[in-house]
Amino acid sequence: MAASLSSLFTIKLINKIPHTSGCLLQLPTCSLHTTSVACKYPNWKMIKEVKNRKAVKDFAFERINVNALRKNKIIPPAIKEIADKEIAALPRNSSISQLHKRCMLTSRPRGLVTRWRLSRIVWRHEADYNKLSGVQRAMW
Amino acid sequence: MKDRPQAFENDKEEKPEQSYDKKIIFQVNHDHHTNERQEASQMGELPVTEGKHDINTDFSCNEKQVRSEDELTMPQDVTVSASKEEQVVKEHSPVEKSDDRRATAQKKLHDLLTSLASADPIPVEPMVRLSRPKARQKKTGTFKEQKKATEQPTESVIEPELVLATKEVAESLGGDVETTESELLSTLRLHSTSTSCDDKPAIQLSDLFVGMKVERNPRKPVKDLPRHKRYDQDTQQSSPRSGVEYQKMWPRATGRPVPRTLARVELFGTEHLDIFNAKSLECKKEAVPTSTLLPVWEVAHKWELQQSVSHPNDNAFTEMIQWTKQGKLWTFPINNEVGLEEEKSVGFHEHIFLEQHLEGWCPRRGPIRHFMELVCTGLSKNPHLTVERKQAHIQWYKNYFAEKEEILKEIGAIETSQ
């Protein structure tokens, strides 16, 4: 019951509470390990990745506008220089190129199958157990 | 066909007698043998038309009395006129003797037919004498019984003398005269062995029972009858019932349909309660106040309500239903524009013609105008953004260039003499 209830709060209140963990911060009045591990991210690196993605989403509008000013031959160069400075001033995490994909289940940074957001090992495992739609052992 | 003209003479004689034959008229088929036809014409029933009418091929019954009467009247006039002509032609026929024979035959046939028409209907009861149970007062309960009672045209006929006798007996006995009389008559009916050859029309029992009401014992329906009530056990065995007792409770599939007394339901008898109106439901939704003092508790309460109502799925169909409601499964037939219902109301002109937003602030010439036009064309080609987002992009540039106005003027991108 506690686990299922806590899942209600993780999604909505994740913005308000600091991202120390994927789930709701347990107050010091409660004991540790009161919730199951199912709602947590597999890795601290994964949590960082989630924060980066959030930052990218926040600054996407501004970044694209400024980049459009920079990457053209019409705007006078003085404006372009100003634009360069402006974009450098934005947080580094908000850049898309800073993102590094990871496996959703194991947080593996390499060997990913993009469409499923899984590492190759997990992908193979799920495919063998018929959890991936339309995926079949190759045979020809 | 040759003998037909002689038949016309007979037609005239038998016109008044045709009233007897109205019940039984046979319209002979044109394709049958001519002898039969001649006989029919001689009997005076078939209107001899000599092919002027197309005679009906069906063998009529009492239903077609009216039609036959009309047909009789019509061709009669024709035949009369024809007969007159042909009588003039042939006055003295050499077959006068055969006419007499035919006349006698006709008379015989007529007598037979009249006797048949006037005879009483034959009763359905057999002649065999069987042992019968005691007479009981039959109740007008089920519809079937009532129907049977109405459908029986033939009843056992009791002689009027017996009827009078029963009346006298009932009066002499005293007490309830009507009931005793009815009982006696019923017994007589059962034991009567009267045949069909009575000329006198007997008094029908149904006429006697017209004003009387039959006693009815309100019987319990079969379900309510106590089944094997146990008196040896003192304790109440209400909830823990065994499988056998459950089976007894279930309605068994018997051959006889249990007579049910269904209450009459009038759908529109009472006033409209007005509970389940769309308006009332909306008002209820609005009326519920959402207090923000205990948000966590409210969330938990809602969760509990959902859990109490929801159950694990029985089968894959319910699971699919759940998924469609959640939005995981597409609805069929597949709609490519799911989630884009709001976009339908927005016209394409708002997406494409974005130069209007440049009016007022953007210079008419120069690099900035060039740039902004490119921005507008790019946005117009983008189908994934909403109109508000596109307008927001243009607005951002407006604000940006407003901030950099001085620098632009120094450079010479904006013409100062505007």
Automatic annotation (TrEMBL), chain A:
Keywords: Ribonucleoprotein, Ribosomal protein. GO terms for cellular component: mitochondrial small ribosomal subunit. One of its GO terms (molecular function) is structural constituent of ribosome. GO terms for biological process: translation. InterPro entries: Ribosomal_uS14. Belongs to the universal ribosomal protein uS14 family. This is 28S ribosomal protein S14, mitochondrial. It comes from Homarus americanus (American lobster).
TrEMBL record, chain B:
Residues 1-39, 83-105 have a biased composition (Basic and acidic residues). One of its GO terms (cellular component) is mitochondrial small ribosomal subunit. It is found in: Mitochondrion. Residues 1-105, 124-156, 217-252 are annotated as: Disordered. Residues 131-141 have a biased composition (Basic residues). InterPro entries: MRP-S31. It comes from the Eukaryota. Keywords: Mitochondrion, Ribonucleoprotein, Ribosomal protein, Transit peptide. GO terms for molecular function: structural constituent of ribosome. The keyword Transmembrane helix does not apply. Its main location: mitochondrion. Belongs to the mitochondrion-specific ribosomal protein mS31 family. This is Small ribosomal subunit protein mS31.
